[in-house]
Design a protein that fits this description.
Length: about 160
């Protein structure tokens, strides 16, 4: 009876106990927008923490449509990646080679050292969370792959 009394009291007074905060329920919704121009068109990005434009730690989420590819590139700082949903395919190297792609499923995590050449593709709509030290920078192995270089070409003069 002695051990039963505390349990009965806890059940009886449970509605009067303050509810514990649920961070997921109180966290502000992510603000999604187009990914920066360094990414091929079609990706969306939301800042989770920090400012990718400043010299500080930041975390962003990228939403990638099915089949989305990021050509071989590198960053001046290390980055950590976690797959939130979908399937993220990645590999290291200077040339996009689909045969080399490795699969990361939801919950999968990995890190890429600074200046390591890598590329990626999404299978299905995929959301990845990326954490790194800012400011964010992305250099394509082949400058022709850089979407910031795209645009109207000036006609050659005779």
């Amino acid at each position: 009876m002695r051990t039963l009394l505390p349990a009965v009291l806890l059940i009886a007074f449970a509605p009067a106990l303050p509810a514990q905060d649920n961070p997921a329920a109180t966290a502000p919704a992510l603000q999604w927008g187009p990914a920066p121009p360094a990414f091929p068109a079609g990706a969306k990005m939301a800042v989770v923490h920090g400012d990718p434009g400043k010299a500080e730690q930041f975390t962003v989420q990228l939403s990638l449509p099915d089949g989305y590819r990021i050509p071989p590139h590198f960053h001046p700082t290390a980055e950590s990646v976690e797959v939130k949903s979908g399937t993220f395919l990645f590999a290291m190297g200077d040339t996009f080679d689909a045969g080399q792609l490795q699969t990361m499923s939801p919950g999968g995590k990995g890190s890429i050292p600074a200046n390591m050449h890598h590329f990626a593709q999404a299978r299905g709509v995929t959301v990845v969370e990326v954490s790194a030290m800012g400011p964010f920078a992305m250099t394509y192995v082949n400058p022709a792959d850089d979407p910031r270089q795209a645009g109207p070409k000036t006609p050659e003069r005779p």
